[in-house]
TrEMBL record:
UniProt keyword annotations, A-Z: Disulfide bond, FAD, Flavoprotein, NAD, NADP, Nucleotide-binding, Oxidoreductase, Redox-active center
Protein name per its UniProtKB record: Glutathione reductase
Active site, per annotation: 438
Organism: Litorimonas taeanensis
InterPro entries: FAD/NAD-bd_sf, FAD/NAD-binding_dom, FAD/NAD-linked_Rdtase_dimer_sf, GSHR, GSHR/TRXR-like, Pyr_nuc-diS_OxRdtase, Pyr_nucl-diS_OxRdtase_dimer, Pyr_OxRdtase_I_AS
Annotated positions binding FAD: 52, 304
Length: 460
């Protein structure tokens, strides 16, 4: 019988925290969970879920136009932001309620307040002032948007604010070239805003395959996003009619909303980690070993707060591995390789495995690259220029598939089963032996031919 109030106390009811808390409670453990905001965390409340609804909303504008090419007569159309915003918020509230209920139904106690460490076994609940003790504590507090401290930064919004805007701006300026910047620039353009995306580098989506990064630029432009490269903001000034943003080359852009999508940081500030002997790295991320254990033996951390692979399903898997390790006597380290993911540009980007430059770094010339670029049949009748890009990278004589990258309609759906193929170590021969499903976009993945390039032409 433990001397502590709880067997497990979870700080943060996001994806990783809720899964861990529920599983521990289902094992009969006494579980407490603290959440200062709405249960569900970034993904459900101010991230993946409401964002995906916005993407669906943005896509309808183009679909209405395309419908006319398919014979539909379309009357007057207009977009009503409050309708979409409020429907999404209603669904977010419903889902958040489910997250809370799922914990409580399984016997966990949920504290709707902030928790901070007093020592390695004790946390203080900020609103009630109550202290509780736990044998094991899980830090699952996630991350928060971060923006550089330039003059006037207080005028900018971040992704947290984007879902509840009072009105839809006429002009939006999105700063950044990562996931959030690309997704939101695509959303705003689709909803009819005059959208500019400014990135400090020369190609969007740093870290992605070089050809995918080029395609991402094309996708944005085709959606009407004006993309400007090699510029960093230095100042935001409020004017009577909006904001003027100045850049490091002296140029200026006027806008109604400045959206800083310049990254996220682990949310460890003020958590009292120093009281519990939990070490953080230079970015404030909780340092963990492969079992998600921190520098303190009874304290673990999962999800974005550890800044490993910052994706919801990864936080969930880390949480499941933590439960196996701590409560099922089955030391389990989650494997962070070959994780499929999608960027919800319009159309989306689906990727799994290594990029071409990573493959070359690891295997030199012992790789084969297959690509195709084609206009999907739906766009032919719609008279739209958008093409699908596919790239498959294999390694060795046996041609094990080590990377797949797709830019195009339904790529986010395709990449999930393709992720199974890569994780399972399938070869190009396995793909070739699979009969195509016709007529689909995905059939191209089983008929790919090698890219006709000189092997020394490295795409970086
Ligand atoms: P990212 O790290 O993807 O992008 C941040 C962007 O901001 C980069 O383009 C970066 O440039 C730029 N930047 C950083 N600092 C500055 C600065 N001082 N001035 C100007 N630009 C700057 O972060 P996001 O916030 O977009 O997303 C955070 C994480 O959340 C992602 O990495 C991903 O793991 C996750 N996420 C996943 C999604 C999905 O799965 N669909 C959707 C949204 C988020 P540079 O590239 O040069 O560093």
């Amino acid at each position: 019988m433990s001397d502590y109030d709880f067997d497990l106390f979870v700080i943060g009811a996001g994806s990783g925290g809720v899964r861990s808390g529920r599983l521990a409670a289902q094992l009969g453990k006494k579980v407490g969970v603290a959440e200062e905001s709405l249960p569900g965390g970034t993904c459900v409340v101010r991230g993946c879920v409401p964002k995906k609804f916005l993407v669906y909303g943005a896509d309808f504008g183009g679909a209405i136009k395309d419908a006319q090419k398919y014979g539909w007569t379309v009357g007057e159309t207009r977009f009503d932001w409050p309708v979409l915003r409020d429907s999404i918020q209603k669904e977010v509230a419903r889902l958040s309620g489910i997250y809370s209920t799922i914990l409580e139904k399984n016997g966990a106690e949920v504290f709707r307040e902030r928790a901070e460490f007093v020592d390695e076994h004790t946390v203080r609940l900020a609103t009630s002032g109550k202290t509780v003790t736990a044998e094991t504590i899980l830090i699952a507090v996630g991350g928060r948007p971060w923006a550089p401290e330039i003059p006037g930064i207080e005028h900018a919004i971040v992704s947290d604010d984007a879902f509840t805007l009072e009105t839809l701006p006429e002009r939006v300026l999105v700063i950044g070239g990562g996931y959030i910047a690309c997704e939101f620039a695509g959303i705003y353009a689709g909803l009819g805003c005059k959208t500019t995306q400014v990135y400090r580098g020369g190609r969007l989506l740093n870290g992605f395959d070089a050809e995918v990064r080029d395609e991402a630029g094309v996708v944005q432009e085709q959606n009407g996003v004006s993309v400007k490269f090699n510029l960093s903001p230095t100042e935001i000034k409020k004017t009577s009619g909006g904001y003027i943003v100045t850049f490091d080359d002296g140029s200026k852009i006027g806008t109604d909303v400045v959206f800083m999508a310049t990254g996220r940081k682990p949310h460890t500030k003020g958590l009292g980690l120093e009281n519990a002997g939990v070490d953080v790295d230079e970015h404030g991320a909780v340092k963990v070993d492969k079992y998600s254990k921190t520098s303190q033996d009874n304290i673990y951390a999962v999800g974005d707060v550890t800044n490993r692979v910052n994706l919801t399903p990864v936080a969930i898997r880390e949480g499941m591995a933590f439960i196996e390790t701590v409560f099922k006597d089955n030391a389990t380290a989650y494997d962070h390789t070959q994780i499929a993911s999608a960027v919800f540009t319009r159309p989306p980007i689906g990727v799994v495995g290594v990029t071409e430059s990573e493959a070359r770094k690891m295997h030199g010339d012992d790789i084969t690259v297959y690509t195709t670029h084609f206009r999907p049949m739906k766009n032919v009748l719609a008279e739209k220029p958008q093409k699908v890009f596919m790239k498959l990278i294999t390694q060795g004589k046996q041609e094990t598939v080590i990377g797949i990258h797709i830019v195009g309609d339904d790529s986010a759906e395709m990449i999930q089963p393709l992720g199974i193929c890569v994780k399972a170590g399938l070869t190009k021969a396995d793909f070739d032996a699979t009969c195509a499903v016709h007529p689909t976009i995905s059939e191209e993945i089983v008929t790919l031919k090698p890219r006709e390039i000189n092997k020394t032409t490295v795409v970086t």
